[in-house]
């Protein structure tokens, strides 16, 4: 395939670190072999996350200068509210400092002890908030999503039979909402089809269960619908996005992804009573309902980012960058999750390091070795991210043991991705030399952020 050129030109540049292998060996040791604990200045190409790492546009930076920092009733809030209504279709929006602030509000408002929250594969912070409020997460994604080599157009789809089975087993009154992620991060950035979204909405309406999206990468999902569902091939990204959101009752949003900003998020809903309750609770956790932990300038940048995000040339290039890196790796025989998703390329650490058992953290080992090899920072998405069962204390043992090479929006060029590909390929050629790790410090919550490791002797 052909890869489109960047649909932007570079106006401001930021120098990046150039380090030696000896330096990197010391840096990763000091960081406990956890790439999250490395310093930015120690990193050459930073593919740790696409969250908050966007390069904002000149239009967004201009908007930052128009921040109305009134404590209540900022004009930027009303601009954000109007933009959300226009592009997503929701009646109410509650700003939060980032996506997990919205997750906290949603779980606190709707979840009670003994509830079950079904979703198309867990996400770390989302599940943590659900469990903190007493719910049990139930994975209802299609089985194929747990197989890295299954090449399906919509591996993020919900298995309707699994959802119906759960409803019959526990009762609809024990299910406060279905958490539908668009796209599914931990499956490899996999999208959900419009057809599946419609069927989920229909089933939930039948049982009076809310559908709440994790809409963090909803624009990427809209692109895949345009690309892979024939009836939408001539539709605009904006039109697909608006229809997609119409099948839900609300959403949590980390604006640090598809809203193209460095900080911010929001909780949306159409129900007036739920909005009133959210407005009361946000004051406790975030701030006034008209700013919720954000400066006026940040809300303005997010409103403008929403408009920019639905530009076809922008999102086409973004998806193409992922495909470019994936194609380079696949041509060299490097095992990756298929098909490539919208925000990252995921290395299959099980297949990459078959000699390292899951209990020795192969994905964490691979991420650390990639940093030593080249200064490229990536992140683990496997047994460490999955955490422990809150009742038994045993490790969750996910079928997918992955290293995520996450591409920030509008930051790197194809030449940078060439460097990444060459680094991974070099590592693949001497993969038998890579050993596992021992976890020497484990925090109680979300351990992948701050856990520390040592190489096994």
From TrEMBL:
CDD domains: Tnase_like (cd00617). It catalyses: L-tyrosine + H2O = phenol + pyruvate + NH4(+). The keyword Nucleotide-binding does not apply. Its EC number is 4.1.99.2. It comes from the Bacteria. Keywords: Lyase, Pyridoxal phosphate. InterPro entries: ArAA_b-elim_lyase/Thr_aldolase, Beta-eliminating_lyase, PyrdxlP-dep_Trfase, PyrdxlP-dep_Trfase_major, PyrdxlP-dep_Trfase_small, Tryptophanase_CS, Tyr_phenol_ly. The modification N6-(pyridoxal phosphate)lysine is found at residue 257. SUPFAM superfamilies: PLP-dependent transferases. Its cofactor is pyridoxal 5'-phosphate. GO terms for molecular function: tyrosine phenol-lyase activity. It holds the Pfam family Beta_elim_lyase. The keyword Lyase applies. One of its GO terms (biological process) is tyrosine metabolic process. Residues 46-422 form the Aromatic amino acid beta-eliminating lyase/threonine aldolase domain. Belongs to the beta-eliminating lyase family. Homotetramer. This is Tyrosine phenol-lyase.
